Amino acid sequence: MTSLPIERPSAVTAEWRDLFALTKPRVMTLVVFTGLCGLLAAPVPVHPVLGFTAVLCIALGAGAAGALNQWYEADLDKKMKRTAGRPLPAGRMEPRSALHFGVGLSAFSVVLMDIATNHLAAAILAVSILFYVVIYTVWLKRRTAQNIVIGGAAGAFPPLIGWAAATGDVTLLPVLLFAIIFLWTPPHFWALSLFVKSDYAAAGVPMMPVVAGLQSTRRQAFLYTLPMVAAAIAPWPLGLTGWIYGAASIALNALFLLFAAAVLANKATDPAKMKPEKRLFGYSVLYLFALFGALVIDARLIP
Strand locations in the chain, DSSP E? Predict the structure, then answer.
């Protein structure tokens, strides 16, 4: 008499890993860093516990926005190679779980920020989450090639939040920090979209290279670099920072201009020949880390 084979349950990815992936941890790293820099550059000392809580809330808010973005865009993610392995398009998580996770994390981050710091910081955090989810993800992403331009404001809020958490107000310097990230987003993201154009085209997302073509995207990426450079250098001549930030800003922005000019000069249509675009994309991440790091060093070393 033969025994029936025993069915063994298939391996399932651990839930915490999928929830963590929903928060877009690589994107969150930059968000948390710029938020921390805004807090540390503020002229008001913050208790370490409250400072840690404020940065944690920024991280949770960014993660919540990322989760809601992935919940809404699961159909697009499934069509693109670089996002097909995410929890929802890969079928490792129910959409409802992602929605509940994102909404719950959003509410928790805003309420905790309000309790730990002040109403203004909590309000800006709430606006940043809503802007990314409603304005960028729902309204702009599928409708216009200017999606990343307007939607880039969502990623520019963290230094404002950090500064407001420390001081309870917003002055010219954090506004300039907001402007830097806002203007940095188009050249940064368009550099990426140039060599992954086929992904966006397959998903039907109207990113600039798909709608306007490669050369137009290169030209606009360069044009946005010019006001970004002006905004990044401005804090020094305006007397808002010292010479450490000023020297670092000039050097970093000169390199950014060179890389953006190389992208503008490139005529390649084959992604394999888009080394200037890949170089600009990689440098743009380093640029923001270095620029904001110089800001904190300058604020802490120069009275």
Answer: none
